[in-house]
Q: What sequence folds into this?
């Protein structure tokens, strides 16, 4: 089955960007959108989709169904989508955590349509199709989490992975559990740290005159604090253990640094931490 009709379920920032990216990459098939009337109107105005339809009408005529809603909504819709999707069609998602989604999909997709978990490591602090961009996925890692930890050799999956590359992303395959452990450290922990940092400063240095003393470093470190809680609540609920483990380790690291500063400070331990941090920064920039 070739991908000729795509349904994007949830035409917000990620879903809208996926539609724009497909068009920019040369996709000539139909792109259907499933969202609220207001979002559909905005998506049509941006040419992110060709037509808006209800879920029950869009999914049965689609070769690729792209679920880009909240994690809770994806989990809720998977059983219904598995029944609506044509045999041989591919259902994929863009959820930020993968274990629960892959588990529910494993139970729901027992024949007919196929499911492949996914997570494009791209986005913005702001949401909505109005902020969608055709190049949002350019140079972004696109994690794929198949049921059995390796991509099936199926033509429609191979074609989807090819389109992932065509929109500028770099597909990589990870087990769902390993994906969630890694993003617990690299995405979810940084969000909580930025939020806690901004909240702590707001409680102690909040007047405008004092904040003028802040340099660009504070703006850089608190950029993620712009993210709204309703974007993150499902992530926290579906990756709690990994996030708590990362928080505990980070708290231990802060306590160790505090003890160095309040004890007989030699500077050796603190210098080691600075060097380790600089090495990570160099690795990030080398990518």
A:
């Amino acid at each position: 089955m070739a991908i000729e009709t795509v349904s994007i379920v949830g035409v917000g920032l990620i879903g809208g960007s996926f539609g724009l990216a497909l068009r920019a990459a040369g996709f000539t098939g139909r792109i259907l959108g499933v969202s609220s009337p207001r979002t559909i109107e905005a998506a049509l105005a941006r040419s992110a989709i060709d037509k808006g339809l209800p879920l029950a009408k869009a999914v049965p005529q689609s070769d690729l169904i792209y679920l880009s809603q909240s994690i809770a909504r994806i989990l809720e819709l998977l059983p219904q989508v598995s029944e609506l999707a044509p045999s041989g069609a591919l259902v994929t998602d863009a959820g930020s955590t993968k274990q629960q989604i892959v588990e529910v999909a494993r139970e729901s997709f027992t024949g007919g349509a196929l499911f492949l978990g996914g997570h494009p490591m791209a986005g913005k602090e702001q949401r909505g199709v109005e902020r969608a961009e055709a190049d949002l996925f350019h140079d972004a890692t696109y994690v794929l989490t198949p049921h059995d930890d390796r991509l099936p050799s199926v033509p429609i999956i191979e074609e989807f992975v090819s389109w992932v590359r065509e929109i500028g992303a770099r597909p990589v395959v990870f087990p769902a559990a390993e994906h969630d452990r890694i993003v617990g450290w690299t995405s979810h922990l940084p969000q909580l740290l930025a939020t806690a940092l901004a909240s702590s400063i707001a409680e102690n240095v909040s007047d405008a005159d004092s904040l003028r003393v802040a340099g660009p470093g504070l703006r850089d470190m608190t950029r993620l604090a712009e993210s709204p809680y309703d974007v993150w609540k499902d992530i926290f609920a579906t990756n709690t253990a990994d996030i708590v483990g990362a928080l505990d380790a980070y708290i231990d690291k802060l306590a160790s640094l505090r003890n160095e500063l309040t004890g007989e400070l030699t500077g050796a331990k603190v210098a080691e931490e600075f060097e380790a941090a600089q090495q990570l920064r160099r690795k990030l920039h080398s990518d």
Q: What stands out?
A: The chain has two domains: 5-174, 178-286.
